[in-house]
Design goal:
Blueprint: H1 6-13, H2 23-32, H3 38-46, H4 51-95, H5 102-169
Keywords: Membrane, Transmembrane, Transmembrane helix
Transmembrane segments: 137-158
C-alpha cells in the first residue's frame, strides 16, 4: 500500500497523534517507510525532536533482547547435551555388566545410538534457531539503519531546501 499523507500512516499505525508512537510502532513506522511518499515521511520524521535518541534506545533494547535470547539458548543447549552425556554414561555402565543377554545388550546399544541421534537433532535445531535469530538481528539492524538514514536524509533535504530558498531570495 502506498501512503500519501500523515493521516493514512497514523491510521495504519492505529495512533491519534505522533506522541502516541511507541517503540513497537516506531519499528512498524520504519518498516512502512518504503511505501511512504518521501515528503510525507520527512515531514513526520522532522516532528520527532528526540528521534535519534529514540532510535538508539530501540536498537539497544533489541540488542539486549538478542543477547538474552542467545544466552538462554546456550544454557539450554548445554543442559540437554550434559543430560544426554549422563544417560550415555549410565547406559555404558549397564553395558559393562557380564550377565546381560544379547537382547539386553542390543537394547542398551540402541539407546546409546538414540541419544546420539537426539544430540545431533538438538544441535541441528539449535543451528536453525541461531540462524533465525541472526536473521532477525539483521532485520533489526536494517530497520535501525533505515531510521538513521531517514533521519539524516530528512535533515539534509530540509537543509538543502532552506539553502535553495536563500539562494532564490538573492
Amino acid at each position: 500500500m502506498r501512503y500519501n499523507n500523515e493521516a493514512e500512516i497514523m491510521q495504519a499505525l492505529e495512533i491519534e497523534s505522533w506522541r502516541n508512537l511507541s517503540k513497537d510502532k516506531m519499528i512498524r513506522f520504519a518498516a512502512m517507510m518504503p511505501d511512504m511518499d518521501t515528503e510525507v515521511a520527512l515531514k513526520i520524521v522532522e516532528q520527532f525532536p528526540t528521534f535519534k535518541e529514540f532510535a538508539r534506545d530501540t536498537v539497544d533494547a533489541m540488542e539486549r533482547a538478542h543477547e538474552s535470547t542467545l544466552s538462554a539458548n546456550k544454557q539450554s543447549q548445554e543442559y540437554v547435551h550434559q543430560a544426554l552425556q549422563e544417560i550415555r554414561a549410565i547406559l555404558k555402565g549397564e553395558l559393562d555388566k557380564d550377565d546381560l543377554t544379547w537382547e539386553q545388550r542390543k537394547f542398551i546399544i540402541e539407546r546409546i545410538q538414540e541419544t546420539g541421534r537426539m544430540d545431533f537433532q538438538k544441535d541441528s535445531e539449535n543451528k536453525k534457531f541461531l540462524d533465525a535469530v541472526f536473521n532477525k538481528a539483521l532485520i533489526g539492524a536494517g530497520v535501525a539503519i533505515a531510521l538513521g538514514v531517514a533521519f539524516v536524509g530528512g535533515r539534509l533535504v530540509a537543509e538543502s531546501k532552506d539553502g535553495s530558498e536563500d539562494s532564490q531570495d538573492h
